[in-house]
């Protein structure tokens, strides 16, 4: 292979790997997809993906060899950009565009703006807080309070700071959410403080983060998985500590309370809020508009499968059953629509990830209930592992289209 041709291929594969990392793909997906891409382009490649770096080695089987180390920034999942990256990869493989054109398209995808503005962000926080509050259960008073605090969290998210303050953003929003909730509870004593705080902060819970970490560890990506798991635990610590600080500040305030009784939310309201909550995953994952219906269907499908499994098999096996159904269905979706399976898979498990369980675990520890904290932490790991194994089992039932 000519040196210039070798360099062109290597440059594109490296940019392709950075693009996959930038849209939030887990380590085993990035490594597997880059490996497949290298083979399709006639190269031998070895890859190691970590949350902050990608290590790559290329060879053409002859004299040409090169090793690259790239520093990358960890970001969230962006299914809209993932779909576009997948399209560019197919165009390059099928020789519809050159490597340089593919490289330019990937740069264009990366620099594109968020399709969802400030208004959608507020709507996202509002409906997510309301939807999860209904799933957790409570009164209409809890419902109104959750919406109020949730919208406040959305407003804080819009004016998100940068620099050192941004590193403490999770703790700051937790302090505000806790303070406002406790003040509302002082005014209306019947409110369920725990449910309101949890539903308003559910967006910041690293449940998906921890689930991806468990998946990476399960696929022997130990460095990446461990680093991601520690990162998820640190987010939980900041949130829990913020809630603790907010409750202490609220204890300084004293004022008369109102005697108001709220009725319990009927069970059938869940079937109204579930589609709305699932639809909000489109904003969270920044999906393209033509994928909206599939993302919404995936969220509803995963939740109902998990609930059905939990009813007859128990919580752990119910989570496994939900993960298996989502894993298999996401591969069917990928085959039928010729799109990445993640477009169905991540929204399908977003309502199942055990982030709230991890928060409860650390809350117990802050209350000096060590036994309760350890028990809940073990429950979180068990549920996350059951979900991951379920998704892997679904991949066995229905073979993935390819690494993506």
UniProtKB/TrEMBL annotation:
<feature type="transmembrane region" description="Helical">
    <location>
        <begin position="143"/>
        <end position="159"/>
    </location>
</feature>
<dbReference type="InterPro" id="IPR051361">
    <property type="entry name" value="ThrE/Ser_Exporter"/>
</dbReference>
<dbReference type="Pfam" id="PF12821">
    <property type="entry name" value="ThrE_2"/>
</dbReference>
<feature type="domain" description="Threonine/serine exporter-like N-terminal">
    <location>
        <begin position="12"/>
        <end position="249"/>
    </location>
</feature>
<feature type="transmembrane region" description="Helical">
    <location>
        <begin position="346"/>
        <end position="366"/>
    </location>
</feature>
<dbReference type="GO" id="GO:0016020">
    <property type="term" value="C:membrane"/>
</dbReference>
<protein>
    <submittedName>
        <fullName>Threonine/serine exporter family protein</fullName>
    </submittedName>
</protein>
<feature type="transmembrane region" description="Helical">
    <location>
        <begin position="265"/>
        <end position="285"/>
    </location>
</feature>
<feature type="transmembrane region" description="Helical">
    <location>
        <begin position="292"/>
        <end position="310"/>
    </location>
</feature>
<keyword id="KW-0472">Membrane</keyword>
<feature type="transmembrane region" description="Helical">
    <location>
        <begin position="316"/>
        <end position="334"/>
    </location>
</feature>
<feature type="transmembrane region" description="Helical">
    <location>
        <begin position="227"/>
        <end position="245"/>
    </location>
</feature>
<dbReference type="Pfam" id="PF06738">
    <property type="entry name" value="ThrE"/>
</dbReference>
<dbReference type="GO" id="GO:0022857">
    <property type="term" value="F:transmembrane transporter activity"/>
</dbReference>
<comment type="similarity">
    <text>Belongs to the ThrE exporter (TC 2.A.79) family.</text>
</comment>
<feature type="domain" description="Threonine/Serine exporter ThrE">
    <location>
        <begin position="278"/>
        <end position="394"/>
    </location>
</feature>
<feature type="transmembrane region" description="Helical">
    <location>
        <begin position="191"/>
        <end position="215"/>
    </location>
</feature>
<feature type="transmembrane region" description="Helical">
    <location>
        <begin position="166"/>
        <end position="185"/>
    </location>
</feature>
<feature type="transmembrane region" description="Helical">
    <location>
        <begin position="378"/>
        <end position="398"/>
    </location>
</feature>
<keyword id="KW-1133">Transmembrane helix</keyword>
<keyword id="KW-0812">Transmembrane</keyword>
<feature type="transmembrane region" description="Helical">
    <location>
        <begin position="120"/>
        <end position="137"/>
    </location>
</feature>
<dbReference type="InterPro" id="IPR024528">
    <property type="entry name" value="ThrE_2"/>
</dbReference>
<dbReference type="InterPro" id="IPR010619">
    <property type="entry name" value="ThrE-like_N"/>
</dbReference>
